[in-house]
């Protein structure tokens, strides 16, 4: 056993440290298409103190350290680009506190989306969180770290906007409280009315610290949920349609998908409009408002509502939607990756054209998936391609297609979401120089030894 | 390797680790080791790497492959269309290891003992029927059913008592049953699960031949593991029998009024054995029996039915103990979950689960709060 392995074993216990080839193989990659790189060690801590000690050791020895949730970002963000220690957070899964009336929850840094969902459903039937459609193992801390979006993002913004406080272990090993909890026992705001320091961590992909606790805002859970599917072939009218829908303030979530299969779906855009109510009256009222808001498009024959079959409804209503993961295996190949720029809704037609064009050019299966963020303020447009892991040529074609998406997205005015290292470089190259300098200053001061998820957001 | 054309299809999304409502991680190997490599998805990715020569047949790789309890939680919850083959894939990898002769020592010992002695306990065959001494259970001679007990029920001290209780109960209820006694041989379920396909076939073929010679058409098993082998694996080898787990027969007997039950006041929780539940879809019969006992309060554990958490004894781990030790061992986790219900009895329908959970209770020092009883033992307490 090396000295470092020994020291790590003394911190987390021998069973929870590995320098073995099996873990090196697995933790060298994620389900996506980025190049692999092996870690030297993988640890699975249980407590904040253990994380502090691991970070101190890494800082002292100048060893890279990479926090990992479920590794489902797909864009290589948990691949230890420079080796070092991968910290698998998934033994820290406690739900520490729920304040029911204030609609707040505090969870540990490795708590999964699934666990919180189950806990709330069982114990707090009137509360919910903005769950993404990532597999249920995905962690809450990582999701806010990458500015994820979920079921409630149309109403309340990015999931990271719903953070109400953080506890972070800094690269020095110190614990830092971010938000109201820095001066109060209560965790209800990540910044306001003080300087909002959460920006020093959120969006940094773990390059400035490890989140050990997250307070999250919860929202009312209505007893009933339903969905309407609106279909249109007029992608140029999409923004107007979204504008009308969001104007109603009646909608829970709007997802727009376009895909070539089954045949009847081809060339159409399906708006999945989710809505909720505590009573049938409330639900039906909202349904009517939603129908009315799109009525003019029906009258001009630019679209119409499609019946949602009883077989299809549960698939669409479940949270997270398992069917999104199933997309990876439509070609019996077990793989998909998407680039999901955040971009104005007015760019929808260009995005929809681009994904079709790239799918044809590279002969790939595709699914375009847009989620509206805020009341039409922007959207995440997911350019998703499915690939066969046993077909290196198809994997290479998928890489090329995604690279073209990156270039397109930047040119179209979009901003990369969960950017790959290549996209990060592209973004930094295009960034306003003063903003870039500020980012560099922040990273250098917080992490002078450059140990935290090195290779990510590296300002040269 | 069989299924080599599937292993690349795992997305490593991890749905297979959970219960259906995401209450908890539900893969016993992952719960114990916590590295992704010990979860179903990790195992899939490593098998692929191993087949591609990207990793070697190390001790750790063997441990990863053999830590699977074949509990089928992943089969139940993987969201992909190949889900039903997950356990088969892990067993296929074990078969490769067996054929290379590179397997963990306890696995090797287990297989050797079966090969040499016909049972994992290294006991002589003529001890096999001893459990029935002092009962009124007859040797099979054309009765309607064969009561097949299996290695654990035949040799393990605790399990022998359960075998005697079940057998006596069947006789008392007027079921026409007989046993093979010292002529019984291993059903091979664990042999197959541990990757010795050749030895399994040999055992199965021997059993099928001897069953057929004796004119056996219907079998009641004590152990869900044997039940599984007879029901799902023997037909392909020419062994078509009508196979029942004893709880299915007992439930019928109670339903038809052939077993009368008096009041038995107890708070009971029921632990689903993986080979009865997830592998064979029998969740109802054991519960029906328990619910029919006046005064008995059945309190479900949070994870039950198709979401039940395995005791850690499946897939040969009962013998190899790769999942044992420490507070994250599945039997201790399951014991604590049972305690949370407020029940005083964990009802089981499998002698392996009985032993695993009794060990869990000991390790957690809960002897004064919880005890394990087989469903037949509970029913016997409730007989008038
Ligand atoms: C099928 C599918 C559907 C998806 N749908 C959605 C969706 O609807 N909405 C959405 O937002 N996302 C979606 N995603 C993307 C992604 O899975 C999620 O955003 C998910 O929440 C990421 O969580 P994770 O635990 O897997 O993160 P990881 O990939 O493990 O980590 C992401 C980043 O966060 C860092 N990190 C992890 N934990 C910590 C910590 N404690 N402290 C500091 N840094 C940390 C990592 O180093 C990495 O840089 C989807 C993915 C898939 C595969
Ligand atoms: S086995 Fe199935 S559920 Fe599990 S990680 Fe693989 S694809 Fe996902
Ligand atoms: S069968 Fe059970 S123990 Fe084996 S990988 Fe699947 S869930 Fe884990």
Can you tell me about this structure?
Chain A is an alpha+beta fold. Chain A contains 15 helices and 19 strands. In chain A, the strands form four sheets. In chain A, strands 12, 13, 14, 15, 16, 17, 18 and 19 form an eight-stranded antiparallel sheet that branches. In chain A, β18 and β19 form a beta hairpin. Chain A is globular, with a radius of gyration of 22 Å. The model of chain A has no long low-confidence stretch (mean pLDDT 97). Chain B is an alpha/beta fold and 384 residues long. In chain B, the strands form two sheets. Chain B has a five-stranded parallel sheet. A four-stranded parallel sheet of chain B has the order 7-6-8-9, sandwiched between helices. In chain B, α16 (351-363) links the parallel β8 (345-348) and β9 (371-374). In chain B, α2 packs across α5, α8 crosses α16 and α15 (330-340) packs across α16. The chains are: A alpha+beta (460), B alpha/beta (384). The A-B interface holds A 15-16, 18, 20-23, 25-27, 31, 42, 44, 70-72, 88, 90-91, 112-115, 117-118, 121-122, 135-137, 322, 325-326, 328-329, 332-336, 388-390 and B 8-15, 17-19, 21-24, 33-37, 42, 45-46, 49, 54-56, 58, 60-61, 64, 79-82, 326. The complex binds flavin-adenine dinucleotide and iron/sulfur cluster (2 copies).
Keywords:
heterodimer, A: 460 residues, alpha+beta, Uridine Diphospho-n-acetylenolpyruvylglucosamine Reductase, domain 2, Uridine Diphospho-n-acetylenolpyruvylglucosamine Reductase, domain 3, Vanillyl-alcohol Oxidase, Chain A, domain 3, five-stranded antiparallel β-sheet, 33% helix, 22% strand, globular, B: 384 residues, alpha/beta, Rossmann fold, 3 domains, five-stranded parallel β-sheet, four-stranded parallel β-sheet, 17 helices, 43% helix, 9% strand, binds flavin-adenine dinucleotide, binds iron/sulfur cluster
